[in-house]
From TrEMBL:
It comes from Hymenobacter psychrophilus. InterPro entries: DUF4293. Keywords: Membrane, Transmembrane, Transmembrane helix. The chain crosses the membrane at residues 7-26, 61-80, 92-109, 129-146. This is DUF4293 family protein.
């Protein structure tokens, strides 16, 4: 089960999607107003560090966290479906949609954060923004090797 290369890819996919929960996704700093905006999987927070400035609340970004956890759970479940390669392929397609949804949610919330501070300044994407892209590549590689295993099994059935 774990000795198959697609299981390793699926495990790395799950780890990268769970890492989205703990690393920052996007940040922006305005040197003039000393304001900072930070996007994580759970919140989009804005704080002003200027004298007399206030710390504003945070907007909940739970869809990012929910999609990342769901994608990791689907990948872990797919590892244990090693006897049912067709089910693994279906789970891979579902995981593809979840990862694309995570990337889309990251983009939407980072665009919301752009409006919090000086619009002329551009925010920077952090590691959490790129991890779903890595997970997408790992998902495609896992699907490719699952299909290769299925072709191998079918060719062995023809030889019998």
């Amino acid at each position: 089960m774990i000795q198959r290369i697609q299981s390793v890819f699926l495990l790395l996919l799950a780890l990268s999607m769970l890492s989205v929960l703990v690393v920052p996704i996007w940040s922006k700093v305005d040197p003039a107003s000393q304001g900072t905006a930070l996007l994580t999987a759970f919140s989009l927070s804005f704080a002003s560090a200027a004298p007399g400035g206030s710390t504003l609340g945070a907007t909940s970004t739970w869809p990012i966290a929910a999609l990342a956890v769901a994608s990791a759970a689907v990948a872990l479940f797919a590892i244990f479906q090693f006897r049912h390669r067709f089910n693994q392929l279906k789970l891979g397609m579902i995981n593809f949609l979840l990862i694309v949804g995570t990337i889309g949610a990251n983009f939407i919330y980072s665009n919301m954060g752009e409006g919090l501070l000086n619009i002329k300044l551009i925010g920077t994407y952090q590691a959490g923004f790129y991890l779903p892209t890595l997970a997408l590549i790992l998902n495609l590689l896992a699907s490719r090797f699952i299909r290769r295993d299925e072709r191998l099994v079918r060719s062995m059935d023809r030889l019998r």
